[in-house]
Design brief:
three-stranded mixed beta sheet, four-stranded mixed beta sheet, 7 strands, Zincin-like, 19% strand, alpha/beta, binds zinc ion
C-alpha cells in the first residue's frame, strides 16, 4: 500500500509476514519505505510513521520531499493525459492497419517506452505524453508490429517501416528523451 504523507510524499508500505516490528528504509529513488507486519492497517501504518517522524527525518537520506512531491504531481497529470489519449491512439492505429491486441496497460517504468507480450497485452509508458506526437506514434506502431514478430528481426523492421517510413529517424530522436518521469 502507499501512504500519502505531507512531509515525505509517497511512502511505500510493504507487508511482510515475518516482520515483527516496523522498519524504515529508503528506496533507490530516495523514497521512504516501511516494512510492517502482515495485518497492519493503513491507520496503524500512519501512526507508526507519525511516531517515528523525528527519527526518519534525522537518520534517513530521503530525497528532497518537495521534489518528490513535484514528481508525484507530474506523474498524476501525465497518467491522466495518457489515459485519455494512448488507448485511443493505439486503437486508431490498430484498426487502421488491422492489428488485434488483447489489452493495453499504462506503465511508468524508467527504462522502456513500451512493450508487447506474447498474450497480446501492449504496455505504453505515460512518459510518451512528453514526447512529440510522431515519436509516440512510432512507439505504438513498433509495439503493434511485435504482435506479428516477437523479436527485432529484419521482418519486424520491415513491418514497422511499412507503417512508419521514417522510423529510423524517429527511433534515433526518441533516444534524446527518457521514459522516466
Ligand atoms: Zn521492440
Amino acid at each position: 500500500m502507499i501512504l500519502q504523507d505531507s512531509e515525505f510524499g509517497e511512502v511505500v508500505v510493504r507487508k511482510n509476514a515475518l516482520a515483527r516490528g516496523v522498519r524504515f528504509s529508503v528506496s533507490t529513488s530516495g523514497r521512504l519505505q516501511m516494512s510492517v507486519p502482515k495485518y497492519t492497517s493503513s491507520f496503524l501504518a500512519k501512526r507508526f510513521l507519525a511516531q517515528n517522524r523525528e527519527m526518519v527525518r534525522a537518520k534517513l537520506p530521503i530525497k528532497d520531499p518537495s521534489l518528490q512531491r513535484a514528481r508525484d504531481a507530474k506523474k498524476k497529470i501525465l497518467m491522466k493525459k495518457a489515459k485519455e489519449y494512448l488507448p485511443y491512439r493505439l486503437e486508431y492505429w490498430a484498426k487502421r492497419y488491422g492489428y488485434r491486441y488483447d489489452k493495453v496497460r499504462l506503465s511508468h517504468a524508467n527504462t522502456r517506452w513500451g512493450s508487447c507480450s506474447s498474450s497480446g497485452t501492449i504496455s505504453l509508458n505515460i512518459g510518451l505524453m512528453q514526447v512529440p506526437e510522431v515519436l509516440r506514434d512510432y512507439v505504438i506502431l513498433h509495439e503493434l508490429a511485435h504482435l506479428h514478430h516477437m523479436d527485432h528481426s529484419a521482418e519486424f523492421w520491415d513491418e514497422v517501416g511499412e507503417h512508419d517510413p521514417r522510423y529510423k529517424n524517429h527511433r534515433a530522436k526518441l533516444k534524446q528523451f527518457s521514459p522516466g518521469v
